[in-house]
Amino acid sequence: MVEERGILLDIVLEREPTRSSEVFYNPAMRTDRDISAAVLGVYARRCGEALRVGDVLAGTGIRGLRYAREVPQVDRVVLNDANPQAVAKIRQHLLLNRCPPERFQVEQRNAHAFLATFMGHFHVLDLDPYGSFIPFLDMAVQSLRRGGLLGLVATDLAVPFGVYPETSLRRYGVVSVRTSFSYEAMLRIYLRAVVEACARHDRAYVPWITFYERHHVRLMGVVLNDAQQATWQRKRMGFIWHCPRCDWRQMDEDSGLGPSSGSGGWGECPLCGGSVRAIGPLWLGELGQQEVVEEALAWLQERGYGEAARLVERLRDEIPLPLPYYDTHALAQRLKTDPPNLRRLIRRLRAQGFQAVRSHCCPEGLKTDAPYDVLCHLVRGEA
Ligand SMILES: C[S@@+](CC[C@H](N)C(=O)[O-])C[C@H]1O[C@@H](n2cnc3c(N)ncnc32)[C@H](O)[C@@H]1O
Ligand SMILES: [Zn+2]
Which residue's CA is the nearest one to ligand 1's atom 3? Predict the structure, then answer.
Protein backbone atom coordinates (compact mmCIF):
# COMPACT_ATOMS: atom_id res chain seq x y z
CA MET A 1 0.00 0.00 0.00
CA VAL A 2 1.26 3.49 -0.89
CA GLU A 3 -0.01 6.84 0.33
CA GLU A 4 0.23 10.12 -1.55
CA ARG A 5 -1.16 13.25 0.11
CA GLY A 6 -3.77 11.24 1.98
CA ILE A 7 -4.80 9.07 -0.99
CA LEU A 8 -4.23 5.33 -0.54
CA LEU A 9 -3.09 3.27 -3.51
CA ASP A 10 -2.93 -0.50 -3.63
CA ILE A 11 0.33 -0.53 -5.57
CA VAL A 12 3.68 -2.25 -5.18
CA LEU A 13 6.35 0.37 -5.76
CA GLU A 14 8.78 -0.40 -8.55
CA ARG A 15 12.25 1.04 -8.75
CA GLU A 16 11.78 2.19 -12.36
CA PRO A 17 8.11 2.31 -13.36
CA THR A 18 7.82 1.88 -17.14
CA ARG A 19 5.11 1.44 -19.74
CA SER A 20 5.35 -2.33 -19.23
CA SER A 21 4.36 -1.93 -15.56
CA GLU A 22 1.01 -3.63 -14.91
CA VAL A 23 -0.42 -0.29 -13.72
CA PHE A 24 1.80 2.76 -13.88
CA TYR A 25 2.56 4.79 -10.76
CA ASN A 26 5.60 7.00 -10.30
CA PRO A 27 6.06 8.44 -6.78
CA ALA A 28 8.63 10.91 -8.18
CA MET A 29 5.73 12.72 -9.89
CA ARG A 30 4.27 13.77 -6.53
CA THR A 31 5.77 17.26 -6.78
CA ASP A 32 4.27 17.63 -10.24
CA ARG A 33 0.88 16.57 -8.94
CA ASP A 34 1.22 19.01 -6.01
CA ILE A 35 1.84 21.88 -8.43
CA SER A 36 -0.91 20.71 -10.76
CA ALA A 37 -3.43 20.66 -7.90
CA ALA A 38 -2.31 24.16 -6.91
CA VAL A 39 -2.77 25.53 -10.45
CA LEU A 40 -6.12 23.79 -10.71
CA GLY A 41 -7.06 25.51 -7.44
CA VAL A 42 -6.21 28.89 -9.00
CA TYR A 43 -8.25 28.03 -12.09
CA ALA A 44 -11.20 26.94 -9.96
CA ARG A 45 -11.27 30.26 -8.11
CA ARG A 46 -11.11 32.24 -11.35
CA CYS A 47 -13.61 30.13 -13.27
CA GLY A 48 -16.23 30.26 -10.53
CA GLU A 49 -18.14 27.23 -11.87
CA ALA A 50 -18.45 23.67 -10.55
CA LEU A 51 -15.67 21.97 -12.50
CA ARG A 52 -15.71 18.82 -14.58
CA VAL A 53 -12.24 17.29 -14.90
CA GLY A 54 -11.12 14.63 -17.38
CA ASP A 55 -8.11 12.54 -16.32
CA VAL A 56 -7.57 11.10 -19.79
CA LEU A 57 -4.65 8.72 -19.13
CA ALA A 58 -5.34 8.04 -15.50
CA GLY A 59 -3.16 5.01 -14.59
CA THR A 60 -3.95 4.41 -10.91
CA GLY A 61 -6.27 7.44 -10.86
CA ILE A 62 -4.01 9.37 -8.49
CA ARG A 63 -4.29 12.70 -10.33
CA GLY A 64 -8.06 12.73 -10.56
CA LEU A 65 -8.46 11.52 -6.99
CA ARG A 66 -6.16 14.19 -5.67
CA TYR A 67 -7.80 16.95 -7.70
CA ALA A 68 -11.23 16.01 -6.34
CA ARG A 69 -9.98 15.85 -2.77
CA GLU A 70 -7.81 18.97 -2.80
CA VAL A 71 -9.86 21.34 -4.94
CA PRO A 72 -13.39 21.65 -3.52
CA GLN A 73 -14.75 23.32 -6.66
CA VAL A 74 -14.15 20.08 -8.58
CA ASP A 75 -17.63 18.69 -8.95
CA ARG A 76 -16.96 15.64 -11.07
CA VAL A 77 -13.92 13.70 -12.28
CA VAL A 78 -13.99 11.23 -15.15
CA LEU A 79 -11.04 8.84 -14.98
CA ASN A 80 -10.11 7.06 -18.18
CA ASP A 81 -7.52 4.49 -19.17
CA ALA A 82 -7.36 2.03 -22.07
CA ASN A 83 -5.70 -0.60 -19.90
CA PRO A 84 -8.29 -2.82 -18.18
CA GLN A 85 -5.93 -3.50 -15.27
CA ALA A 86 -5.59 0.25 -14.68
CA VAL A 87 -9.36 0.65 -14.79
CA ALA A 88 -9.79 -2.13 -12.21
CA LYS A 89 -7.23 -0.39 -9.98
CA ILE A 90 -9.00 2.96 -10.35
CA ARG A 91 -12.29 1.38 -9.24
CA GLN A 92 -10.53 -0.25 -6.29
CA HIS A 93 -8.92 3.09 -5.34
CA LEU A 94 -12.25 4.89 -5.41
CA LEU A 95 -13.62 2.39 -2.88
CA LEU A 96 -10.45 2.31 -0.81
CA ASN A 97 -10.53 6.09 -0.44
CA ARG A 98 -14.31 6.26 0.18
CA CYS A 99 -14.80 8.53 -2.79
CA PRO A 100 -18.44 9.61 -3.16
CA PRO A 101 -19.66 7.80 -6.32
CA GLU A 102 -21.63 10.80 -7.57
CA ARG A 103 -18.36 12.74 -8.02
CA PHE A 104 -16.56 10.08 -10.08
CA GLN A 105 -16.98 8.18 -13.32
CA VAL A 106 -14.62 5.57 -14.74
CA GLU A 107 -14.16 4.89 -18.46
CA GLN A 108 -12.10 2.39 -20.39
CA ARG A 109 -11.56 3.91 -23.81
CA ASN A 110 -8.80 4.82 -26.13
CA ALA A 111 -7.91 8.44 -25.33
CA HIS A 112 -9.07 9.68 -28.75
CA ALA A 113 -12.46 8.00 -28.41
CA PHE A 114 -12.74 9.38 -24.88
CA LEU A 115 -11.99 12.93 -26.01
CA ALA A 116 -14.45 12.64 -28.90
CA THR A 117 -17.19 11.25 -26.65
CA PHE A 118 -16.81 14.05 -24.14
CA MET A 119 -16.39 16.83 -26.71
CA GLY A 120 -17.00 20.24 -25.07
CA HIS A 121 -17.72 18.64 -21.68
CA PHE A 122 -14.65 19.26 -19.55
CA HIS A 123 -13.43 22.46 -17.96
CA VAL A 124 -10.12 20.73 -17.32
CA LEU A 125 -8.32 18.04 -19.32
CA ASP A 126 -5.21 16.40 -17.99
CA LEU A 127 -3.02 14.22 -20.21
CA ASP A 128 -0.14 12.36 -18.67
CA PRO A 129 1.03 9.98 -21.42
CA TYR A 130 4.04 7.78 -21.93
CA GLY A 131 6.48 9.90 -23.93
CA SER A 132 4.98 12.72 -25.96
CA PHE A 133 1.55 14.36 -25.71
CA ILE A 134 1.59 15.04 -29.45
CA PRO A 135 -0.63 12.07 -30.47
CA PHE A 136 -3.46 13.46 -28.31
CA LEU A 137 -2.90 17.19 -28.59
CA ASP A 138 -5.19 18.26 -31.46
CA MET A 139 -8.05 16.18 -30.13
CA ALA A 140 -7.63 17.52 -26.60
CA VAL A 141 -7.57 21.13 -27.80
CA GLN A 142 -10.85 20.59 -29.66
CA SER A 143 -12.50 18.63 -26.87
CA LEU A 144 -11.86 21.13 -24.08
CA ARG A 145 -14.62 23.60 -23.15
CA ARG A 146 -14.16 27.27 -24.04
CA GLY A 147 -11.63 28.82 -21.71
CA GLY A 148 -10.71 25.41 -20.31
CA LEU A 149 -7.50 24.45 -18.54
CA LEU A 150 -5.20 22.03 -20.38
CA GLY A 151 -2.56 20.05 -18.48
CA LEU A 152 0.10 18.12 -20.38
CA VAL A 153 3.08 16.00 -19.44
CA ALA A 154 5.96 15.07 -21.75
CA THR A 155 8.71 12.58 -21.00
CA ASP A 156 10.36 12.32 -24.42
CA LEU A 157 12.85 14.96 -23.32
CA ALA A 158 15.84 13.69 -25.28
CA VAL A 159 14.01 14.64 -28.49
CA PRO A 160 13.64 18.41 -27.96
CA PHE A 161 16.81 18.46 -25.85
CA GLY A 162 18.89 18.01 -28.99
CA VAL A 163 19.75 14.31 -28.81
CA TYR A 164 17.39 13.39 -31.66
CA PRO A 165 17.17 16.47 -33.91
CA GLU A 166 15.42 14.66 -36.77
CA THR A 167 12.75 13.18 -34.51
CA SER A 168 12.31 16.65 -33.07
CA LEU A 169 11.78 18.09 -36.56
CA ARG A 170 9.22 15.38 -37.32
CA ARG A 171 7.37 15.55 -34.02
CA TYR A 172 7.68 19.21 -33.04
CA GLY A 173 8.58 20.96 -36.30
CA VAL A 174 11.93 22.15 -34.91
CA VAL A 175 15.44 20.79 -35.33
CA SER A 176 16.56 20.57 -31.72
CA VAL A 177 20.14 21.59 -31.00
CA ARG A 178 22.42 20.84 -28.05
CA THR A 179 23.31 24.14 -26.39
CA SER A 180 24.27 25.38 -22.95
CA PHE A 181 20.55 26.19 -22.42
CA SER A 182 18.97 23.04 -23.86
CA TYR A 183 16.59 22.58 -20.92
CA GLU A 184 14.96 25.90 -21.60
CA ALA A 185 14.99 25.43 -25.39
CA MET A 186 13.16 22.17 -24.72
CA LEU A 187 10.41 23.98 -22.77
CA ARG A 188 10.05 26.45 -25.62
CA ILE A 189 9.85 23.69 -28.24
CA TYR A 190 7.01 22.02 -26.32
CA LEU A 191 5.26 25.36 -25.87
CA ARG A 192 5.49 26.10 -29.55
CA ALA A 193 3.83 22.77 -30.35
CA VAL A 194 0.92 23.56 -28.03
CA VAL A 195 0.48 27.15 -29.22
CA GLU A 196 0.53 25.97 -32.85
CA ALA A 197 -1.96 23.17 -32.21
CA CYS A 198 -4.35 25.62 -30.58
CA ALA A 199 -3.87 28.14 -33.39
CA ARG A 200 -4.81 25.46 -35.95
CA HIS A 201 -8.23 25.33 -34.31
CA ASP A 202 -8.61 29.13 -33.91
CA ARG A 203 -7.76 28.89 -30.24
CA ALA A 204 -5.14 30.70 -28.23
CA TYR A 205 -3.01 28.94 -25.64
CA VAL A 206 -2.08 31.09 -22.66
CA PRO A 207 0.69 29.39 -20.68
CA TRP A 208 -0.03 29.44 -16.95
CA ILE A 209 2.93 27.37 -15.85
CA THR A 210 5.66 25.45 -17.68
CA PHE A 211 8.47 23.65 -15.95
CA TYR A 212 11.05 20.92 -16.11
CA GLU A 213 11.47 18.52 -13.23
CA ARG A 214 13.68 15.42 -13.18
CA HIS A 215 12.48 13.31 -16.09
CA HIS A 216 9.54 15.28 -17.36
CA VAL A 217 8.13 18.60 -18.51
CA ARG A 218 4.76 19.91 -17.36
CA LEU A 219 2.66 22.46 -19.20
CA MET A 220 -0.59 23.95 -17.94
CA GLY A 221 -2.45 26.74 -19.66
CA VAL A 222 -5.81 28.11 -20.61
CA VAL A 223 -7.21 27.56 -24.11
CA LEU A 224 -9.29 30.48 -25.37
CA ASN A 225 -11.63 30.36 -28.35
CA ASP A 226 -10.16 33.52 -29.75
CA ALA A 227 -8.74 33.44 -33.26
CA GLN A 228 -7.39 36.98 -33.00
CA GLN A 229 -5.44 36.21 -29.88
CA ALA A 230 -4.25 32.99 -31.52
CA THR A 231 -2.77 35.07 -34.34
CA TRP A 232 -1.14 37.36 -31.81
CA GLN A 233 0.25 34.42 -29.82
CA ARG A 234 1.87 33.04 -32.96
CA LYS A 235 3.80 36.29 -33.25
CA ARG A 236 5.57 35.35 -30.03
CA MET A 237 7.29 32.61 -31.98
CA GLY A 238 10.78 33.23 -33.23
CA PHE A 239 14.43 32.27 -33.13
CA ILE A 240 17.24 32.43 -30.65
CA TRP A 241 20.47 33.41 -32.30
CA HIS A 242 23.27 31.57 -30.59
CA CYS A 243 27.03 31.51 -30.94
CA PRO A 244 28.29 28.05 -29.96
CA ARG A 245 31.81 29.41 -29.69
CA CYS A 246 31.26 32.09 -27.01
CA ASP A 247 27.64 31.38 -25.89
CA TRP A 248 26.33 34.81 -26.93
CA ARG A 249 22.61 34.68 -27.65
CA GLN A 250 19.79 36.97 -28.67
CA MET A 251 16.06 36.48 -29.02
CA ASP A 252 14.45 37.38 -32.30
CA GLU A 253 10.65 37.38 -32.14
CA ASP A 254 8.72 37.03 -35.37
CA SER A 255 11.69 38.07 -37.50
CA GLY A 256 10.67 35.84 -40.37
CA LEU A 257 14.38 35.16 -40.74
CA GLY A 258 16.06 31.84 -40.49
CA PRO A 259 14.92 28.54 -41.96
CA SER A 260 11.22 28.00 -41.37
CA SER A 261 11.54 24.35 -40.46
CA GLY A 262 14.59 24.28 -38.29
CA SER A 263 17.89 25.60 -37.14
CA GLY A 264 20.78 26.46 -39.36
CA GLY A 265 23.98 28.43 -39.62
CA TRP A 266 23.55 32.12 -40.29
CA GLY A 267 25.39 35.29 -39.47
CA GLU A 268 28.39 36.35 -37.48
CA CYS A 269 28.69 36.65 -33.71
CA PRO A 270 28.96 40.34 -32.71
CA LEU A 271 31.30 39.39 -29.87
CA CYS A 272 33.73 36.78 -31.16
CA GLY A 273 33.10 36.70 -34.91
CA GLY A 274 32.14 33.02 -34.70
CA SER A 275 29.33 31.58 -36.75
CA VAL A 276 25.90 32.24 -35.19
CA ARG A 277 23.10 29.74 -35.65
CA ALA A 278 19.35 30.27 -35.47
CA ILE A 279 17.58 27.93 -33.08
CA GLY A 280 13.87 27.62 -33.63
CA PRO A 281 11.22 28.50 -34.30
CA LEU A 282 10.47 28.46 -30.58
CA TRP A 283 7.95 30.04 -28.24
CA LEU A 284 9.72 33.18 -27.01
CA GLY A 285 6.93 34.42 -24.77
CA GLU A 286 6.55 33.88 -21.04
CA LEU A 287 6.75 30.41 -19.55
CA GLY A 288 3.82 31.26 -17.30
CA GLN A 289 1.58 33.92 -15.78
CA GLN A 290 3.16 35.54 -12.79
CA GLU A 291 -0.08 36.16 -10.83
CA VAL A 292 -1.18 32.55 -11.36
CA VAL A 293 2.18 31.24 -10.24
CA GLU A 294 2.12 33.56 -7.22
CA GLU A 295 -1.33 32.27 -6.19
CA ALA A 296 -0.28 28.67 -6.76
CA LEU A 297 2.76 29.28 -4.59
CA ALA A 298 0.61 30.57 -1.72
CA TRP A 299 -1.63 27.47 -2.06
CA LEU A 300 1.42 25.18 -1.84
CA GLN A 301 2.91 27.05 1.10
CA GLU A 302 -0.39 26.89 3.03
CA ARG A 303 -0.33 23.12 2.72
CA GLY A 304 3.37 22.75 3.49
CA TYR A 305 4.19 21.23 0.08
CA GLY A 306 7.79 22.40 0.42
CA GLU A 307 9.56 20.90 -2.58
CA ALA A 308 6.82 22.03 -4.95
CA ALA A 309 6.80 25.50 -3.38
CA ARG A 310 10.56 25.88 -3.86
CA LEU A 311 10.30 24.98 -7.55
CA VAL A 312 7.37 27.33 -8.10
CA GLU A 313 9.14 30.15 -6.28
CA ARG A 314 12.03 29.88 -8.71
CA LEU A 315 9.64 29.79 -11.65
CA ARG A 316 7.91 32.93 -10.43
CA ASP A 317 11.20 34.79 -10.37
CA GLU A 318 12.16 33.58 -13.85
CA ILE A 319 9.01 34.57 -15.69
CA PRO A 320 9.95 38.24 -16.31
CA LEU A 321 13.29 37.19 -17.82
CA PRO A 322 12.77 35.70 -21.27
CA LEU A 323 16.40 35.22 -22.36
CA PRO A 324 17.47 31.59 -21.70
CA TYR A 325 19.65 30.88 -18.71
CA TYR A 326 23.44 30.85 -18.83
CA ASP A 327 25.17 27.73 -17.59
CA THR A 328 27.63 29.55 -15.33
CA HIS A 329 29.95 26.53 -15.01
CA ALA A 330 30.23 26.18 -18.78
CA LEU A 331 30.71 29.93 -19.05
CA ALA A 332 33.52 29.90 -16.48
CA GLN A 333 35.18 27.03 -18.30
CA ARG A 334 35.03 28.99 -21.54
CA LEU A 335 36.50 32.03 -19.80
CA LYS A 336 39.20 29.78 -18.32
CA THR A 337 38.29 30.72 -14.78
CA ASP A 338 36.78 28.93 -11.77
CA PRO A 339 33.00 28.49 -11.50
CA PRO A 340 31.50 31.53 -9.77
CA ASN A 341 29.58 31.52 -6.53
CA LEU A 342 26.11 31.92 -8.02
CA ARG A 343 24.56 33.67 -5.05
CA ARG A 344 27.34 36.26 -4.99
CA LEU A 345 27.20 36.73 -8.74
CA ILE A 346 23.45 37.36 -8.56
CA ARG A 347 24.02 39.90 -5.78
CA ARG A 348 26.61 41.73 -7.83
CA LEU A 349 24.44 41.81 -10.95
CA ARG A 350 21.54 43.20 -8.93
CA ALA A 351 23.81 45.79 -7.32
CA GLN A 352 24.55 47.02 -10.85
CA GLY A 353 20.83 47.40 -11.53
CA PHE A 354 20.28 44.21 -13.53
CA GLN A 355 17.75 41.51 -12.92
CA ALA A 356 19.30 38.18 -11.99
CA VAL A 357 17.75 34.94 -10.74
CA ARG A 358 18.50 31.25 -10.69
CA SER A 359 16.90 29.02 -13.30
CA HIS A 360 14.71 26.16 -12.10
CA CYS A 361 16.09 24.09 -14.98
CA CYS A 362 19.63 23.53 -13.78
CA PRO A 363 21.54 24.28 -10.58
CA GLU A 364 24.21 26.34 -12.38
CA GLY A 365 21.66 28.23 -14.47
CA LEU A 366 21.50 32.01 -14.23
CA LYS A 367 18.88 34.18 -15.88
CA THR A 368 19.70 37.83 -16.26
CA ASP A 369 19.05 40.84 -18.44
CA ALA A 370 22.65 41.99 -18.09
CA PRO A 371 24.56 42.31 -21.38
CA TYR A 372 26.70 39.30 -22.07
CA ASP A 373 30.01 41.19 -21.84
CA VAL A 374 29.02 42.57 -18.39
CA LEU A 375 28.21 39.04 -17.26
CA CYS A 376 31.56 37.72 -18.55
CA HIS A 377 33.37 40.52 -16.79
CA LEU A 378 31.70 39.67 -13.50
CA VAL A 379 32.29 35.94 -13.87
CA ARG A 380 35.99 36.65 -14.39
CA GLY A 381 35.98 38.92 -11.37
CA GLU A 382 34.09 36.38 -9.27
CA ALA A 383 36.65 33.62 -9.52
C1 LIG B 1 2.15 7.70 -17.57
S2 LIG B 1 0.75 6.71 -17.28
C3 LIG B 1 -0.37 7.74 -16.38
C4 LIG B 1 0.08 8.05 -14.99
C5 LIG B 1 -0.94 8.73 -14.13
N6 LIG B 1 -1.58 9.86 -14.76
C7 LIG B 1 -0.29 9.16 -12.82
O8 LIG B 1 -0.30 10.37 -12.47
O9 LIG B 1 0.24 8.28 -12.10
C10 LIG B 1 -0.01 6.62 -18.85
C11 LIG B 1 -1.31 5.83 -18.87
O12 LIG B 1 -1.92 6.01 -20.14
C13 LIG B 1 -2.55 4.80 -20.53
N14 LIG B 1 -2.63 4.86 -22.00
C15 LIG B 1 -1.60 4.81 -22.89
N16 LIG B 1 -2.05 5.00 -24.15
C17 LIG B 1 -3.38 5.18 -24.05
C18 LIG B 1 -4.41 5.47 -24.98
N19 LIG B 1 -4.13 5.58 -26.30
N20 LIG B 1 -5.67 5.63 -24.55
C21 LIG B 1 -5.96 5.53 -23.23
N22 LIG B 1 -5.04 5.24 -22.28
C23 LIG B 1 -3.77 5.07 -22.68
C24 LIG B 1 -1.66 3.71 -19.98
O25 LIG B 1 -2.40 2.53 -19.76
C26 LIG B 1 -1.17 4.35 -18.67
O27 LIG B 1 -1.95 3.94 -17.57
ZN1 LIG C 1 30.59 34.39 -30.25
Answer: 59
Report CA(81)–ligand 1 centroid distance (Å): 6
Percentage of the chain exceeding pLDDT 90 = 87
Range of the domain at 34: 2-235+288-315
Whole-angstrom distance, CA of residue 60 vs CA of residue 38 = 20
For the chain, give the mean pLDDT: 93
Give the number of domains in the chain: 2
CA contacts within 13 A on the Cβ side of 217:
26
231 and 354 belong to one structural domain: no
Provide the pLDDT for residue 260. 37
For residue 255, what pLDDT is reported? 53
**99 lies in the same domain as 202:** yes
86 lines ligand 1 (CB under 6 A): yes
Same domain, 140 and 76: yes
Q: What pLDDT is recorded for position 266?
A: 65
Q: What is the largest CA-CA distance in the chain?
A: 67
Q: From the CB of 59, is ligand 1 less than 6 Å away? A: yes
- Closest ligand to the CA of 22: 1
Report how far ligand 2's centroid is from the alpha carbon of 246 (Å): 4
Which residue among 90, 112, 130 has the greatest number of ligand 1 atoms within 8 angstroms of its CB, and so is best to mutate?
A: 130
* Same domain as 329, residue 311: no
Indicate whether 343 and 207 sit together in one domain.
Answer: no
Q: Whose CA is nearest to atom 6 of ligand 1?
A: 58
Residue 259 has pLDDT above 80, yes or no: no
Rounded Cα–Cα distance for residues 78 and 182 (Å): 36
Specify the ligand 1 atom closest to the Cα of 86.
27
Average pLDDT over residues 75-104: 97
114 within some domain: yes
| Residues in Cβ contact with 209 at an 8 Å cutoff, skipping those fewer than 6 apart | 35, 39, 218, 219, 220, 221, 287, 288, 289, 292, 293, 296, 312, 315
CA of 269 to the centre of ligand 2 (A): 5
